[in-house]
Specification:
single chain, 181 residues, alpha/beta, seven-stranded mixed beta sheet
Length: 181
């Protein structure tokens, strides 16, 4: 029912998802840039013209490097990151804690993942590029430890696009393991 994209930028992912969803959804675009909020405000105003009038668009300013305390996530929600966690480097734990503590039913991270490079010449150069850019570091290893500790369940890990300088994008889909009281 609710889709939250963190680091939404110009909201093109949210708009594309909205165009492909038949049932009404609430889309929350969260980003540090004020221009992102302005774009989402415009999407909400022009949603009839864009043929997504069955949906609602909301925006909020957020800094993923800082501890997120005041954002209320409603139940029946999914979390999406697409190239926004890459900017966190090894400083992703505050954001992970936020995702884990929030009532997300599903978390979808589409990010460059350093843990999947292989020991061949191509991947050695791609890994150097990844490190030089300061991209996300050891995130998948971190999630696997959480899975071993029965905190989360990783549902899917799949590399799906790359280039000669970088392995590009990997999708990781995971969810919390609900504890019974």
């Amino acid at each position: 029912k609710n889709i939250y994209e963190f680091g939404c930028g110009p909201s093109h992912n949210l708009l594309n998802i909205a165009k492909n969803c038949k049932n009404s959804k609430n889309f929350f675009g969260l980003d540090w840039a004020r221009s992102s909020q302005k774009i989402l405000e415009l999407l909400e105003k022009k949603k009839s013209t864009l043929e997504v009038n069955r949906h609602y668009f909301f925006s909020e300013k957020i800094d993923m490097l800082k501890k997120i305390e005041n954002l209320k996530v409603t139940k029946s929600s999914a979390c999406l990151t697409y190239g926004s966690m890459e900017q966190l480097g090894s400083n992703f734990k505050n954001f992970y804690n936020f995702m884990y503590k929030s009532p997300f039913d599903l978390i979808i991270n589409i990010e460059p993942i350093d843990d999947l490079y292989k020991n061949n010449l191509f991947d050695q150069y791609a890994y150097k590029y990844h490190c030089k850019r300061g991209y996300l570091k050891n995130y998948l290893s971190f999630l696997k430890k959480k899975e071993q500790n029965k905190k989360i369940k990783i549902l899917k890990v799949q590399k799906f696009i790359g280039s000669e300088m970088d392995d590009g994008w990997t999708i990781i889909i995971w969810k919390k393991i609900r504890t019974r009281l």
